[in-house]
Amino acid sequence: MSDGADFADLRRRMEGAISAFKSDIAALRTGRASANVLDPVSVDAYGSKMPLNQVANISVPEPRMITVSVWDKSMVGAVEKAIRESNLGLNPVTDGSTLRIPLPELNEERRKELVKVAHNYAENGRIAVRHVRKDGMDTLKKAEKDGDLSQDESHAQSDDVQKLTDEMIAEIDRLLSDKEAEIMQV
What mean pLDDT is predicted for residues 139-149? Predict the structure, then answer.
């Protein structure tokens, strides 16, 4: 017999969506090189998509340069292609099995592009949170339909699910505005 929504599970899943959003925006650079910039890059390697850090070593030798040392020389082309197509505005230069990625100076246009990317990440985070809300609401409807939950209890719990959703979306919006300010700061 069900007693409605499992709020601990809903909260955990929504916080998972927020933590994914945090790691996405952490990868958006704000003027200094960081190995995290390449976190969202996935490489077609050995027949599947793999995170870049599983096929190469990423380091930051200078404030405006990232180097990627690919372990398998046959993967250099795939890694270079993945970085170019990652929508991060990076242009790697190949030197044997090492890729040097100079970070261009952030101009106004590039900053605005990064803000748009951050907004995309935020929208994906909001969608993930809404999917969790939908699962919770569906659970409540099913419990009410099966007679495990009264209509009043179902309504009260659905209000709680909505409050939790609003709280999580507000957190995403706060993180986004902080990141936006950080990106636009010259």
Answer: 89
